[in-house]
């Protein structure tokens, strides 16, 4: 073997050894899988929170079977019901009275009977009506009672019923089989109608007076994001009769002109008297309205993970996190709601719940100018959408399936419709860097727990959050996204919004959201106290010839409901809080402060014939005595008869005493949306977020977050690289693990 061959073999051997060493070293440094440590707080709750739990699928089915067998009238499947049939519109949990629940939770009393609330449409009656029946006890029902008169003072007229999905389907059939054939040339040549290329959206409320059920239907190109593809045609349908054969077109609007019906539009078109503005047919993906990314994938966005597992626990409908505990549920009409919210073991709120989401539109087209959507009527819980891991919520979140029964005799499962996760907000909850006298740093990462649902009601998506902070503060927040509603751009349309595309007017509208906040601060009985600041003039004691304008604290107890009803544009004290009948170590009344984030303007003029139906929106804050007969600020029946509202919130405020009483705060937050070109393809959440904070105010003797394990403190004299001194120095070790991200799943397109 010559020298050259020996050298080559030696070189190959050295290269092999080097490669093996690199592999071994790499293996030694490769991160391990993250360890799952048990949460510090063990959930010792013995099922008490189930008193607030949503109905199970089996319970809903039992209620349906009971109603089918005990009402003495036939019940038609709601998805196939005609307006003149009897059917079950929805079944939901009947939350027990608060006094019974508190006896059970706090005093060892009996568990309240578990009951359901069923909403039924009785169309096949001499006097058609809507009835609300409480059915119980679950899981095996044995009784029912009609609570309609007790709740509303009388029977609810049938015309107020929220519109079922099947009624929209029937109206679509009417348009397709009767209305559109009356204008064959116009529909074929102008609309290029082929039986499936047009989508329809309904405006609401439906008319101008009680008893009306006359709706404007706007036509759009049936493509992805159709809400911004108007074609200029709107049809007013009178569907008030329980006999669908009696339905009729009352008016037609096309490109700025009104016609008696489709036949008159056809006649005018054939005679050349219609100003035709033909819309270019969009591709199936919507073209400009498509949400398909316009850029290829690149570097992945940043991710968070839990290196030592979840620091919260979810058991049934009960959550524990960093001193917080609460029960959660999802109402068919109002969506996400929380009960029995406690911090450090003490209840601070009995109920936090969404009440209503209102949008008031403007336009020079008939549907747009008459739209006042009250989304609770459509169902903020009914239209809770499945959540996409990694976008709607973090991949590592806990996803919760929920059950609902509406427009059907069978419950349906909504997969991953709630999520719960801890979130590092990337900023300090508190911190201080000292370079005077002593040198030190102290801080606390702002890591909070979020519970979220997202409701997609038509064009809009509402992201509903309740957020729990380590300092005892709690936030309720809603972010609006989805597609803006639009009208066909014509005439003076730019008085009512901005042009978004060739024929698309993004119509001006408002968003108002109402919350119910039943605080129990240091007990059920509270008072409402306002603190603020005023300047006072005083002489400088050390220099009497000089004046000083100094701020001083102002204090006022608000004794009555009238004093505690703050109109939208009125000046509200900057510190307003529920005060307990106990004091902290420093002699101050313990309290929880209400802080509202809102940019709301006027809802509608109070002279409007429908204003009382949305009178909760008059007030940025109203505090009333809590009453079982005033469970909600509005009603699902107000949408279709706002002129004679079933519930008028303004009637809750009648100057009753709110001193040392069980109180409820009704909070309204909102903003104005003038759609603009950046709302294409759809609206972003940034800047479209409002809500409120509940913050401890002298409730504790000091900030409770000082006891958080996440705190960091070190001085100039300490070894900052020692884990015992500085937990941040441990991150390379404690966080050098591979997160176990679950495989991506999404069931949102099943069982539609």
Automatic annotation (TrEMBL):
<protein>
    <recommendedName>
        <fullName>Amine oxidase</fullName>
        <ecNumber>1.4.3.-</ecNumber>
    </recommendedName>
</protein>
<dbReference type="GO" id="GO:0005886">
    <property type="term" value="C:plasma membrane"/>
</dbReference>
<dbReference type="Pfam" id="PF01179">
    <property type="entry name" value="Cu_amine_oxid"/>
</dbReference>
<dbReference type="GO" id="GO:0048038">
    <property type="term" value="F:quinone binding"/>
</dbReference>
<dbReference type="Pfam" id="PF02728">
    <property type="entry name" value="Cu_amine_oxidN3"/>
</dbReference>
<feature type="active site" description="Schiff-base intermediate with substrate; via topaquinone">
    <location>
        <position position="460"/>
    </location>
</feature>
<feature type="domain" description="Copper amine oxidase N2-terminal">
    <location>
        <begin position="75"/>
        <end position="143"/>
    </location>
</feature>
<comment type="similarity">
    <text>Belongs to the copper/topaquinone oxidase family.</text>
</comment>
<dbReference type="InterPro" id="IPR015800">
    <property type="entry name" value="Cu_amine_oxidase_N2"/>
</dbReference>
<keyword id="KW-0186">Copper</keyword>
<dbReference type="InterPro" id="IPR036460">
    <property type="entry name" value="Cu_amine_oxidase_C_sf"/>
</dbReference>
<feature type="domain" description="Copper amine oxidase N3-terminal">
    <location>
        <begin position="161"/>
        <end position="256"/>
    </location>
</feature>
<keyword id="KW-0560">Oxidoreductase</keyword>
<dbReference type="InterPro" id="IPR015798">
    <property type="entry name" value="Cu_amine_oxidase_C"/>
</dbReference>
<feature type="domain" description="Copper amine oxidase catalytic">
    <location>
        <begin position="304"/>
        <end position="706"/>
    </location>
</feature>
<keyword id="KW-0801">TPQ</keyword>
<feature type="active site" description="Proton acceptor">
    <location>
        <position position="375"/>
    </location>
</feature>
<dbReference type="GO" id="GO:0009308">
    <property type="term" value="P:amine metabolic process"/>
</dbReference>
<dbReference type="InterPro" id="IPR015802">
    <property type="entry name" value="Cu_amine_oxidase_N3"/>
</dbReference>
<keyword id="KW-0479">Metal-binding</keyword>
<dbReference type="GO" id="GO:0008131">
    <property type="term" value="F:primary methylamine oxidase activity"/>
</dbReference>
<feature type="modified residue" description="2',4',5'-topaquinone">
    <location>
        <position position="460"/>
    </location>
</feature>
<dbReference type="GO" id="GO:0005507">
    <property type="term" value="F:copper ion binding"/>
</dbReference>
<dbReference type="InterPro" id="IPR000269">
    <property type="entry name" value="Cu_amine_oxidase"/>
</dbReference>
<dbReference type="InterPro" id="IPR016182">
    <property type="entry name" value="Cu_amine_oxidase_N-reg"/>
</dbReference>
<dbReference type="Pfam" id="PF02727">
    <property type="entry name" value="Cu_amine_oxidN2"/>
</dbReference>
<dbReference type="InterPro" id="IPR049947">
    <property type="entry name" value="Cu_Am_Ox_Cu-bd"/>
</dbReference>
<dbReference type="InterPro" id="IPR049948">
    <property type="entry name" value="Cu_Am_ox_TPQ-bd"/>
</dbReference>
């Amino acid at each position: 073997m010559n020298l050259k061959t020996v050298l080559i073999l030696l070189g190959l051997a050295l290269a092999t050894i080097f490669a093996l060493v690199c592999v071994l070293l790499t293996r030694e440094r490769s991160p391990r899988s993250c360890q799952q440590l048990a949460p510090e707080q063990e959930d010792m709750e013995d099922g008490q929170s189930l008193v607030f739990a949503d109905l199970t699928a089996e319970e809903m089915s039992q209620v349906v079977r009971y109603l089918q067998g005990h009402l003495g009238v036939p019940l038609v499947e709601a998805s196939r019901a005609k307006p003149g049939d009897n059917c079950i519109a929805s079944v939901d949990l009947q939350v027990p009275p608060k006094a019974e629940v508190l006896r059970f939770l706090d005093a060892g009393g009996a568990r309240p009977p578990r009951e359901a609330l069923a909403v039924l449409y009785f169309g096949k009656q001499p006097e058609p009506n809507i009835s609300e029946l409480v059915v119980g006890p679950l899981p095996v029902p044995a009784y029912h009672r009609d609570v309609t008169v007790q709740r509303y003072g009388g029977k609810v007229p049938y015309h107020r019923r929220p519109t079922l999905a099947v009624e929209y389907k029937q109206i679509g059939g009417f348009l397709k089989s009767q209305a559109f054939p009356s204008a064959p040339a116009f529909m074929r040549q102008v609309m290029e109608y082929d039986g499936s290329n047009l989508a329809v959206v309904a405006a609401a409320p439906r008319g101008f007076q009680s008893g009306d059920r006359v709706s404007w239907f706007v036509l759009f190109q049936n493509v992805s994001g159709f809400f911004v593809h108007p074609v200029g045609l709107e049809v007013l349908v009178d569907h008030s009769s329980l006999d669908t054969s009696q339905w009729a077109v009352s008016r037609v609007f096309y490109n700025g002109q009104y016609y008696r019906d489709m036949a008159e539009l056809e006649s005018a078109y054939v005679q050349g008297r219609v100003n035709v503005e033909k819309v270019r047919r969009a591709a199936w993906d919507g073209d400009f309205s498509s949400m398909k990314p316009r850029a290829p994938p690149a570097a992945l966005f940043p991710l968070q993970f839990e290196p030592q597992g979840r620091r919260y626990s979810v058991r049934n409908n009960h959550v524990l996190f960093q001193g917080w505990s609460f029960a959660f549920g999802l109402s068919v009409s109002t969506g996400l709601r929380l009960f029995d919210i406690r911090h450090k073991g003490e209840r601070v709120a009995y109920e936090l719940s969404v009440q209503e989401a209102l949008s008031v539109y403007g336009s020079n087209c008939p549907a747009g100018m008459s739209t006042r959507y009250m989304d609770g009527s459509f169902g903020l819980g009914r239209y809770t959408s499945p959540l996409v891991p990694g976008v709607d919520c973090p991949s590592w979140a806990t996803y919760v399936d929920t059950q609902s029964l509406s427009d059907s005799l069978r419950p349906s499962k909504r997969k991953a419709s709630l999520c719960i996760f801890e979130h590092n907000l990337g900023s300090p909850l508190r911190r201080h860097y000292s370079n005077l006298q002593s040198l030190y740093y102290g801080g606390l990462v702002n890591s909070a727990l979020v519970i979220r649902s997202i409701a997609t009601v038509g064009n809009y998506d509402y992201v509903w959050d309740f957020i729990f902070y380590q300092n005892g503060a709690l936030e309720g927040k809603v972010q609006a996204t989805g597609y803006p509603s639009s009208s066909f751009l014509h005439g003076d349309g730019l008085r009512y919004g901005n042009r978004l595309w060739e024929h698309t007017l993004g119509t001006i509208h408002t968003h108002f959201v109402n919350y119910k906040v039943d605080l129990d601060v240091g007990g059920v009985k509270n008072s409402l106290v306002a603190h603020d600041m005023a300047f006072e003039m005083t002489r400088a004691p050390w220099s009497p010839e000089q004046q000083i304008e100094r701020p001083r604290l102002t204090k006022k107890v608000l004794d009555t409901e009238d004093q505690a009803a703050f109109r939208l544009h009125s000046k509200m004290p900057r510190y307003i809080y529920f005060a307990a009948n106990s004091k902290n170590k420093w002699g101050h009344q313990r309290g929880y402060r209400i802080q509202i984030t809102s940019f709301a303007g006027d809802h509608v003029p109070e002279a409007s014939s429908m204003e009382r139906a949305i009178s909760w929106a008059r007030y940025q804050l109203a505090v009333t005595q809590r009453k079982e007969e005033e469970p909600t600020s509005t009603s699902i029946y107000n949408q279709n008869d706002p002129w004679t509202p079933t519930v008028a919130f303004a009637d809750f405020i009648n100057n009753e005493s709110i001193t040392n009483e069980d109180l409820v705060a009704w909070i309204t937050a909102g903003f104005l949306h003038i759609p603009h070109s950046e709302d294409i393809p759809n609206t972003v959440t940034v800047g479209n977020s409002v809500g409120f904070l509940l913050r401890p105010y002298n409730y504790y003797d000091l900030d409770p977050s000082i006891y958080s394990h996440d705190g960091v403190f070190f001085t100039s004299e300490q070894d900052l690289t020692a884990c015992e001194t500085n937990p941040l120095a441990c991150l390379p070790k404690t966080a050098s693990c591979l997160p176990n991200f679950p495989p991506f799943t999404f069931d949102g397109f099943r069982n539609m």
